[in-house]
């Protein structure tokens, strides 16, 4: 079947993974978006126009992550990929721990899903399976696909997720530095094993985190404690480590966002965010960009353009 001429509009949120104790498991979708228009062509080639973040930097051929993810999705469902023209308007910063690569992967998958509308039915498990395989871990792609707070895990049948709604008092604030850190480098800093007591510590905090996010935001400070990843990666992002210490010393539930170096503060009311932003502006030398972001509850959307 020829898909040439079909055109879809795709919108994918930023995400923050880990949320402190939930390493490779918890993720939160945030209202900052990459928006794309993807057109199927019969030219057997890929062209990409990027505006905003990544303009002049990311690949603009079939190795572009959105394009390669779309092509991989066609292959995963046994369909031949058409040529593609992608126009991307990106807002999610790259290499900062806000899920930009997961968003690109999900954008490609959502585009393929939209172009295949009527020919292939995608279940949520299939979407998450393709996305996790391409991204390498499920904790960013799950909230990027489905929105809200997600718990992601791997079963014998593949990756699975549970989407949860978040207490309306939970008010995310993100501090984004100019520096970047690759997830691969951050993952190399992880030890192969951890002390049993540290594992127990994180099981307790991660369980508490779900309760804090859903019904008890006043518990977010204790719930965001972690011993599995942040200390091992601290030396690779000293400004982040120092600023999180400052925020936590003042009672704000601050954590590394994903693999860093951005910071996520899960304030338990919108008013706290301004105070936290002022504290960081006056208390650190790093030029942080502060973003007060709502939780995104929809996840990726794809709509046909006629
Ligand atoms: N859980 C992953 C990590 C998230 O921390 O390595 C990367 O965005």
From TrEMBL:
<feature type="domain" description="GHMP kinase C-terminal">
    <location>
        <begin position="220"/>
        <end position="273"/>
    </location>
</feature>
<dbReference type="Pfam" id="PF08544">
    <property type="entry name" value="GHMP_kinases_C"/>
</dbReference>
<keyword id="KW-0028">Amino-acid biosynthesis</keyword>
<comment type="function">
    <text>Catalyzes the ATP-dependent phosphorylation of L-homoserine to L-homoserine phosphate.</text>
</comment>
<keyword id="KW-0808">Transferase</keyword>
<keyword id="KW-0963">Cytoplasm</keyword>
<dbReference type="InterPro" id="IPR014721">
    <property type="entry name" value="Ribsml_uS5_D2-typ_fold_subgr"/>
</dbReference>
<protein>
    <recommendedName>
        <fullName>Homoserine kinase</fullName>
        <ecNumber>2.7.1.39</ecNumber>
    </recommendedName>
</protein>
<dbReference type="InterPro" id="IPR006203">
    <property type="entry name" value="GHMP_knse_ATP-bd_CS"/>
</dbReference>
<dbReference type="InterPro" id="IPR020568">
    <property type="entry name" value="Ribosomal_Su5_D2-typ_SF"/>
</dbReference>
<dbReference type="GO" id="GO:0004413">
    <property type="term" value="F:homoserine kinase activity"/>
</dbReference>
<keyword id="KW-0791">Threonine biosynthesis</keyword>
<feature type="binding site">
    <location>
        <begin position="93"/>
        <end position="103"/>
    </location>
    <ligand>
        <name>ATP</name>
    </ligand>
</feature>
<dbReference type="InterPro" id="IPR006204">
    <property type="entry name" value="GHMP_kinase_N_dom"/>
</dbReference>
<keyword id="KW-0547">Nucleotide-binding</keyword>
<dbReference type="InterPro" id="IPR036554">
    <property type="entry name" value="GHMP_kinase_C_sf"/>
</dbReference>
<dbReference type="InterPro" id="IPR000870">
    <property type="entry name" value="Homoserine_kinase"/>
</dbReference>
<comment type="pathway">
    <text>Amino-acid biosynthesis; L-threonine biosynthesis; L-threonine from L-aspartate: step 4/5.</text>
</comment>
<comment type="similarity">
    <text>Belongs to the GHMP kinase family. Homoserine kinase subfamily.</text>
</comment>
<keyword id="KW-0418">Kinase</keyword>
<dbReference type="Pfam" id="PF00288">
    <property type="entry name" value="GHMP_kinases_N"/>
</dbReference>
<keyword id="KW-0067">ATP-binding</keyword>
<feature type="domain" description="GHMP kinase N-terminal">
    <location>
        <begin position="66"/>
        <end position="148"/>
    </location>
</feature>
<dbReference type="InterPro" id="IPR013750">
    <property type="entry name" value="GHMP_kinase_C_dom"/>
</dbReference>
């Amino acid at each position: 079947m020829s898909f040439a001429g079909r055109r879809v509009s795709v919108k994918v949120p930023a995400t923050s993974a880990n949320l402190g104790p939930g390493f490779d498991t918890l993720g939160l979708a945030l209202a900052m978006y990459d928006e794309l228009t993807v057109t199927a062509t019969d030219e057997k080639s890929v062209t990409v126009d990027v505006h905003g973040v990544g303009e002049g930097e990311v690949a603009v051929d079939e190795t572009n992550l959105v394009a390669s993810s779309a092509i991989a999705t066609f292959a995963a469902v046994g369909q031949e990929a058409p040529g593609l023209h992608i126009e991307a308007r990106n807002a999610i910063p790259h290499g900062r721990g806000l899920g930009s690569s997961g968003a690109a992967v999900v954008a490609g998958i959502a585009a393929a899903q939209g172009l295949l509308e009527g020919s292939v039915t995608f279940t949520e498990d299939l979407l998450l399976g393709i996305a996790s395989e391409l991204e390498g871990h499920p904790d960013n792609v799950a909230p990027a696909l489905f929105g809200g707070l997600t718990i992601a895990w791997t079963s014998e049948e593949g990756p699975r997720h549970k989407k949860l709604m978040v207490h309306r008092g939970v008010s995310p604030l993100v501090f984004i530095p100019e520096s970047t850190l690759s997830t691969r480098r951050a993952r190399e800093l992880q030890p192969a094993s951890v002390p049993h007591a540290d594992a127990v510590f994180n099981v307790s905090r991660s369980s508490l985190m779900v309760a804090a996010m859903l019904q008890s935001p006043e518990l977010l400070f204790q719930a965001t404690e972690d011993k599995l990843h942040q200390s091992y990666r601290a030396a690779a992002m000293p400004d982040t480590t120092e600023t999180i210490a400052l925020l936590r010393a003042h009672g704000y539930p601050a954590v590394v966002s994903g693999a860093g170096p951005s910071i996520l503060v899960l304030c338990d009311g919108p008013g706290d965010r301004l105070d936290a932003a002022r504290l960081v502006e006056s208390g650190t030398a790093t030029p942080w960009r502060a973003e007060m972001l709502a939780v995104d509850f929809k996840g990726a959307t794809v709509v046909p353009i006629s």
